[in-house]
Amino acid sequence: MKKMKKAVYLILFSVLTANSQVMENPNTIMSLAPVEQLALTQEWDKVFPKSDKVDHRKVTFVNRYGITLAADMYTPKDAAGKLPAIAVSGPFGAVKEQSSGLYAQQLAERGFITIAFDPSFTGESGGRPRRVASPDINTEDFSAAVDFLSVLPDVDSSRIGVLGICGWGGIAIQTAINDPRIKATVASTMYDMTRVAANGYFDTDNSAEKRNAARASLAAQRTEDYRNGSYKRAGGVVDPLPTDAPQFVKDYHAYYKTPRGYHPRSGNSTDGWNVTSILPLMNFRFFEYAGELENAVMILHGEKAHSRYFGEDTFKLLCGDNKELLIVDGASHCDLYDNLDKIPMDRIAQFFSKRMPAE
């Protein structure tokens, strides 16, 4: 009898121990990653004035890769009931204190709950090393913002949209292709970052020879980075400005390198991306399934924007009668960063309201 009891105890102990080992084994954890406690600036440090028509607070959420993202949330004052919501990000290399925050605040004034978030590895968000770009992780960032908004008690989860500016305009559309929870998408003054990375501006470097030369240079830089134990930075917007700089480079300088848009956490304002961040963008192509995007899209560009061809070519890939292309008379690429006389904010709000109607 004693031997039988001992055997039962041994079996029970082994089962409990096995369960304990499974529970403590990090390779078997299936729950969401914990939200990292980020050091968030509490004072108003945006490049635009604070509105008295909305409430503002900092929020954090985690993406599917376990990276904690930081965002500014803007809510209409005296909001009642469940409201439609919009996640905003961009431009590429910028932070939420710049253009994306301005858009988010403006749309909150028009009745939406909005968040402007810093992408992974950028600004106040988590992720190491800093200033790394990834077409996969960055599209995931937008979907993670939708995750977060979907479970807020004040948000109508059937009425969530996204808005991307500059390089994040292309990322917004790419995310919407894969995430049907996004009912409406606006891409403002958009870039296709995969196209410009692989082909250069205006497709002037679109050849196997030039891409292979770029790959060889970047691969060599990887070796140097690993040897040095740190990543070489690409540099932000050029400064001082060469006298023969193209007009669009002058426009970037006028935004990122002056009090108008400079922010110390913005890579475009300071020392830029890691040089090798361009590699995954060269090896990836957005919009392969653009024709399958059923939900609504608005692409808007300035008439004079150097980036206009990205938006017009992407628009041709979209199908359905819920897609819109809006060209803003007389506007440049950077006018749609912060020039409220040029940005058709009411048209954008009307688009979201029309394409995300209350049920």
**Poorly predicted ranges (pLDDT <50, ≥5 residues)?**
none
How does the major sheet shape up? 8 strands, mixed
- What portion of residues belong to β-strands? 15-25%
Q: Considering DSSP H and I runs of 4 or more, what fraction of the residues is helical?
A: 25-40%
Instruction: For the largest sheet, list the strands in their spatial order.
Output: 1-2-4-3-5-6-7-8
Count of DSSP helices?
11
Element-by-element helix/strand order = HEEEHEHEHEHHHHEHEHH
Number-wise, the strands total 8
- CA distance, first residue to last residue: 69 Å
Mean residue pLDDT = 94
Structural class: alpha/beta
Written overview of the protein:
By secondary structure, the protein is α/β, with parallel strands linked by helices. The protein is built from eleven helices and eight strands. An eight-stranded mixed beta sheet has the order 1-2-4-3-5-6-7-8, with helices on both faces. The mean pLDDT is 94.
Keywords:
359 residues; alpha/beta
